């Protein structure tokens, strides 16, 4: 069983009543409904997928280029979460040439427009850009042209930033309907910068934006990497949760452009795993310090989610420079917005409630994952850079246990075989339409490769109970 899967409440653990077990699971878990292979696209859009966002129907995935010193292309893939094999396109407005080790560092989709941040694609601050792409046409939105008014759909030097824009891109909801915009965090700056959603013009700069760094901590603790931002996300109240190097920090909103206080949500460890004195002392989630490693990401799972246990939960990756590869369970972390590990825990499971496979579902990787949570569909996306795949989790368990028990009778029998037979279409073939039930076909797809083939028939045979 994966490391982050702790015991639940006693009633759930004891399994006194099947119904009670299902209720507890629904309040605390996310279930893997699909694993989308991205290897066919990255390549051409960069060596690896690096950033992800979603509008609930499609995922938008930006690339990373790191192969050689010769400049090459990165781009953005639009892929249907329910039909990834039949509905995937490259957005033309996302194609750009970058130098080695450059990437899409932040994606936001809102109102049918995808906003995409790239920091110094050719090595100069002047070329740092946010582009706006119409998700339906794939073309740049010409009116989003920033302070320079170029009319090209690209904002260069967003918010007049001439520093490293590696703190991600966020949608700041503002407070009381005021100051909604696209948020940026720059390395070495303690303030949140912002540009307008409509046209990309500057709202707040590194001189005028609200102070999100913990400069006013009443405990007087010293943070050596106070403004080493990697990623950030907002809640509905405008509070902002930030990756400060490999740590997680909260800035508590008091107004449209002001902060009233700060909260450190993680503890610190040295690279060898020993405790390190820091502002997060005593927090239950300990993370190894890694100030110079990119790809330290975060997402907020809102308390409206069944899968979050009806609490606000932050999911993030312990991305540090301690080894070449890491186990998924060792680096995926969760904590609530008070810095407390959820109890019962938020578990990541297969669609039938069984543990994730460490070979097929979540093989070892580089500890580089990006996250996105869609509140409307209650879907959590985890982008796996190393294995070039997108994991799609639902807050609602879609399958019985075993998964091939389609009618929930407690047995896998000939009734279930009739359902399986309708789903069986062969490798690389989408799930059949009616009379086959797409939900049943997803449960029949044990390979999580978006088809029902002879490998899945083998697993059906193992589960069969005549």
Bin the helical content: under 10%
Mean pLDDT over the residues: 89
Strand portion, in percent?
25-35%
**Total number of domains:** 2
* Class per helix and strand makeup: mainly beta
Structure summary:
This protein is 10% helix and 32% strand. With 466 residues, the chain is mostly beta strands. The protein folds into two domains: 27-394, Methylamine Dehydrogenase, Chain H (7 Propeller); 414-463, no CATH class.
Question: Can you lay out the helices and strands and say which pair or pack?
Answer:
Layout: H1 10-14, H2 18-26, E1 29-37, E2 48-54, E3 58-65, E4 72-74, E5 76-80, E6 88-90, E7 96-98, E8 102-110, E9 113-118, E10 129-134, E11 154-156, E12 169-172, E13 181-185, E14 192-195, E15 202-204, E16 229-234, E17 240-244, E18 247-255, E19 258-264, E20 267-269, E21 275-276, E22 286-288, E23 298-301, E24 313-317, H3 328-331, E25 332-336, E26 347-350, E27 369-374, E28 379-384, E29 389-394, H4 414-423, H5 438-444, H6 454-463
Parallel strand pairs: 1-26, 20-22
Antiparallel strand pairs: 1-29, 2-3, 3-5, 3-8, 4-7, 5-6, 8-9, 9-10, 10-11, 12-13, 13-14, 14-15, 16-17, 17-18, 18-19, 20-21, 23-24, 24-25, 27-28, 28-29
Helix pairs in contact: 4-5
Structural overview:
There is one protein chain. Helix content is 10%, strand content 32%. The chain has 466 residues and is mainly beta. The chain has 2 domains: 27-394, YVTN repeat-like/Quinoprotein amine dehydrogenase (Methylamine Dehydrogenase, Chain H, 7 Propeller), CATH 2.130.10; 414-463, no CATH class. The strands form 7 sheets. Strands 2, 3, 5, 6, 8, 9, 10 and 11 form an 8-stranded antiparallel beta sheet that branches. α4 (414-423) crosses α5. It is globular. 47% of the residues are buried. Residues 1-27 have low confidence and may be disordered.
């Amino acid at each position: 069983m994966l490391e982050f899967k702790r015991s639940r409440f006693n009633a759930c653990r004891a399994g006194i009543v099947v119904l009670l077990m299902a209720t507890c699971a629904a309040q605390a878990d996310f279930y893997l409904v699909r694993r989308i292979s991205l290897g066919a696209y990255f390549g051409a859009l960069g060596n690896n997928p690096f950033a992800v966002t979603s509008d609930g129907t499609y995922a938008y995935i930006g690339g990373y280029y790191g192969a050689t010193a010769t400049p090459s292309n990165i781009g953005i893939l639009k892929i249907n979460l329910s039909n990834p094999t039949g509905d995937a396109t490259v957005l033309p407005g996302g194609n750009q040439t970058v130098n080695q080790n450059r990437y899409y560092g932040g994606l936001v989709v809102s109102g049918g427009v995808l906003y995409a941040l790239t920091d110094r694609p050719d090595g100069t601050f002047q070329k740092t850009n946010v582009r706006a792409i119409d998700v339906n046409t794939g073309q740049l939105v010409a009116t989003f042209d920033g302070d320079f008014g170029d009319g090209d759909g690209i904002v260069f030097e967003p918010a007049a930033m001439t520093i490293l824009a590696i703190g991600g891109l966020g949608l700041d909801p503002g407070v009381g309907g005021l100051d909604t915009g696209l948020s940026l965090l720059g390395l070495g700056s303690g303030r949140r910068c912002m540009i307008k959603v409509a046209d990309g013009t500057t709202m707040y700069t590194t001189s005028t934006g609200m102070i999100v760094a913990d400069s006013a901590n009443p405990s007087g603790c010293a943070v050596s990497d106070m403004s080493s931002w990697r990623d950030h996300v907002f809640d509905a109240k405008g509070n902002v949760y930030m990756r400060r190097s490999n740590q997680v920090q909260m800035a508590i909103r008091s107004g449209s452009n002001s902060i009233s206080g700060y909260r450190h949500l993680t503890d610190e460890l040295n690279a060898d795993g020993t405790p390190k004195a820091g502002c997060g002392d005593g927090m239950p989630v300990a993370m190894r310090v890694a100030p110079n490693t990119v790809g330290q990401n975060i997402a907020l799972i809102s308390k409206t989610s069944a899968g979050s246990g009806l609490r606000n939960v932050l999911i993030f990756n312990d991305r540090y420079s301690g080894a070449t590869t890491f186990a998924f369970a060792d680096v995926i972390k969760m904590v609530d917005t008070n810095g407390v590990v959820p109890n019962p825990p938020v578990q990541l499971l297969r669609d039938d409630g069984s543990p994730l496979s460490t070979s097929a579902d979540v093989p070892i990787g580089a500890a580089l994952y990006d996250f996105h949570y869609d509140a409307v569909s209650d879907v959590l996306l985890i982008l796996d850079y190393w294995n070039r795949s997108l994991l799609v989790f639902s807050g609602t368990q879609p399958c019985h246990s075993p998964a091939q028990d389609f009618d929930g009778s407690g047995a896998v029998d000939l009734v279930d075989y009739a359902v399986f037979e309708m789903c069986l279409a062969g490798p690389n073939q989408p799930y059949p339409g009616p009379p086959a039930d797409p939900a049943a076909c997803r449960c029949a797809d044990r390979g999580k490769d978006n088809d029902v083939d002879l490998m899945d028939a083998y697993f059906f045979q193992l589960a069969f109970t005549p």
